[in-house]
Specification:
- This protein is an alpha+beta fold.
- About 40% of the residues lie in helices and about 20% in strands.
- It contains six helices and six strands.
- It has a two-stranded parallel ribbon.
- The termini are far apart.
């Protein structure tokens, strides 16, 4: 509410959000003094502290190292599974999107090219159409979801096409 006072419940929500994103030790520091990864985790904590039923996230893993990317996506999955929070996230990392998304929407130039479960829509042809990139799509050995292996002109077995 716009006019209600800060409550103990608000304190609890903020503390829970700071703990869940592993930024409690940063609570007293100004955001402009934080690294890019720390800022990203603090912004996610700010969204979590609002305790909404829907979270809209634009590149929530940007600036995070691989370990923190997984931590954040695991946290968001937990929120979805345990608290029923609906998550809509923009992710440009196709492999993380395939691993974590229940439903994907692939867009190009503002139009929807494909949507559905990652296993149903992520193909070499789709990646080529949307990103203009040659690739192989294989099964991720960790999650059994599609895994996109980019194919450049160099460092590829066989002749480059």
């Amino acid at each position: 509410g716009w006019f209600r006072r800060w409550s103990a419940e608000d304190d609890e929500a903020v503390a829970r959000a700071l703990l869940s994103t592993d930024v409690l030790e940063l609570a007293d520091r100004p955001v402009d003094e934080l690294s890019g990864g720390q800022r990203q985790r603090v912004w996610i904590a700010m969204a979590l502290a609002q305790r909404t039923d829907i979270l809209l996230l634009d590149e929530p893993t940007t600036f995070l190292d691989a370990s923190h990317q997984l931590d954040v996506l695991d946290l968001l999955t937990d929120l979805n599974h345990e608290q029923g929070v609906t998550l809509v996230a923009v992710l440009h990392d196709l492999n993380l999107a395939c691993r974590y998304a229940d439903h994907m929407v692939a867009m190009k130039a503002g139009r929807v090219v494909a949507e559905g479960r990652p296993v149903d829509i992520v193909t070499e042809e789709l990646v080529g159409e949307v990103f203009g990139m040659r690739c192989s799509v294989i099964e991720d050995p960790a999650s059994a979801t599609p895994m996109v292996v980019p194919l450049g002109r160099h460092h590829v077995k066989g002749p480059a096409a």
